[in-house]
Amino acid sequence: MLLLGRLAQVLDDYAVVSGEDRLDVSRLLISPCDSSEQFVFMDTPAQIVDHVLAFEHVPLWDPKVDTEDDGRWRLFAAHIKEAIETADTNQRMLVLVEGGVSARRTA
Asked: How far is CA 94 from CA 61, 66, 79, 90, in A?
């Protein structure tokens, strides 16, 4: 899966990324390496990929060493890290917001 591969690449030293496939939905799970906590994306893998590909004017892209797509994934990884690091103890759901990612309260 493109999503798991790309996120594993850009979150390598920060978190373990895995998928959960159930009959009703597929979810993306993220477990920070320095924590026993697990975060789950409420958006589908397809929605996440569409969100990442929509980034324009990516600041983390150096055309001398990589592609703009690489920069998009690094920017998305930065958004994930920020959401995880600023999450309250009861906020373990990650949701896409315009231009970023937000942590929300679990049910």
From this structure: 25, 28, 10, 12
- What are the percentages of helix, strand and coil residues in the chain, rounded to 5? 35, 30, 40
The helix (run of H) or strand (run of E) holding residue 96 is strand 91-97
Q: Is 85 helix (H, G, I), strand (E, B) or coil?
A: helix
Cα 91 to Cα 107: distance, rounded to the nearest angstrom: 9
pTM to 2 decimals? Answer: 0.89
Q: What is the pLDDT of residues 40-96, one digit of tens each?
A: 999 988 899 999 999 988 876 777 888 888 889 999 999 999 999 999 989 999 999
